[in-house]
Design a protein that fits this description.
Radius of gyration: 19 Å
CATH class of the largest domain: Alpha Beta
Number of domains: 2
Largest sheet: 6 strands, parallel
CATH architecture of the largest domain: 3-Layer(aba) Sandwich
Helix content: 40-55%
Mean pLDDT: 92
Order of helices and strands: EHEHEHEHHHHHHEHHHHEH
Number of strands: 6
Number of helices: 14
Oligomer: single chain
CATH topology of the largest domain: Rossmann fold
């Protein structure tokens, strides 16, 4: 990319309308989209991750969707490297970075610090504690040691909690401290746009989306992935609840209720993360003209 190329970030919680807005903007700006969604990366996870439709993928070139398999290890650090490499060879003036994974967006915009390699012995110890004592106790420990991380990660995901505790014990530093180091220089300008709506409206959208996913065949997708449910990528909201249902831990109605509840909680944590970034310009998703006006002002400043 040239020194004055423009990266336009569209961030916000799940079900807020990021994809529809991004498609419209990409067609307007004649540019491509980088997906900053840590689950849409995986080719086996489709309905439960609310990937863009095939028509949307055909309308605009997307990057980092269906990029990896659930059987491959991937991280925000690797995403940073891969995206920056892609941008170095991108031959247009503008590009959109769209998603709800705050750490992935931060990795591209600011860079993230190197994390220590996994300590398998320590991880096994923490995994045994999780199996013996349950997730709540590990989450409480993380809250005590690093409340900033506890407030922003998916605390329903044992792998996220175990990894954070692992890093804390390895380094003696808070996980959030390691993620918020010195900002790296980038050779592109950045505009950040955040989408938000009243909570009740957002929660209704989430509930309706879960219902729509079930109509689209989410349960069949979960069944097809059940043999790999221990994979890190699959231990996430929208899948773990239905794995528990298939295991006989509770009925389908309860799985649906938990999926909606956990997705609402996840959305709140996404907003908590993004609200800490004072550089984000906030809009209602339907304020297209206002958003477009800001973007064109930003582009013309090159």
């Amino acid at each position: 990319m040239s020194d004055k190329s423009k990266l336009i970030v569209i961030a916000g919680p799940t079900a807020i309308g990021k994809t529809d807005l991004a498609i419209k903007l990409a067609l307007e700006l004649d540019c491509e989209i980088i997906s900053a969604d840590s689950r849409q990366i995986y080719k086996e996870m489709n309905i439960g991750t609310a990937k863009p439709t095939q028509a949307q993928l055909n309308a605009v070139q997307h990057h980092f969707i269906n990029y990896k398999s659930i059987h491959e290890y991937y991280s925000a650090g690797r995403f940073e490297v891969d995206v920056i490499k892609m941008l170095d060879n991108y031959n247009r003036d503008n590009i959109l970075l769209v998603g709800g994974s705050g750490l992935y967006i931060k990795a591209v915009c600011d860079g993230i610090d190197e994390m220590p390699d996994p300590d398998l012995n320590l991880r096994m110890t923490l995994q045994k504690r999780f199996e013996d004592d349950g997730l709540a106790k590990l989450a409480d420990e993380l809250k005590r040691l690093d409340i900033d991380t506890w407030e922003t990660i998916d605390i329903q995901n044992p792998n996220r909690i175990i990894r954070a505790l692992e890093v804390i014990q390895q380094t003696g530093k808070r996980y959030s401290e390691l993620k918020n180091g010195k900002k790296k220089e980038r050779n592109f300008d950045i505009l950040k746009i955040g989408l938000d709506i009243p909570r009740e409206d957002l929660f209704n959208r989430i509930n309706n989306r879960v219902d729509a996913m079930l109509d689209q065949g989410l349960l069949d997708e979960v069944k097809s992935l059940e043999r790999w449910k221990d994979k890190t990528a699959l231990q996430t909201v929208g899948y773990s609840e239905f794995f528990d249902y298939l295991a006989g831990n509770f009925g389908l109605d309860e799985a649906v209720r938990l999926c909606k509840r956990n997705t609402r909680r996840y959305a709140k944590r996404q907003l908590t993360w993004f609200r800490k970034d004072k550089g984000i310009h906030w809009f209602l998703p339907d304020r297209y003209k206002n958003i477009k006006s800001l973007i064109y002002s930003f582009i013309s400043s090159r």
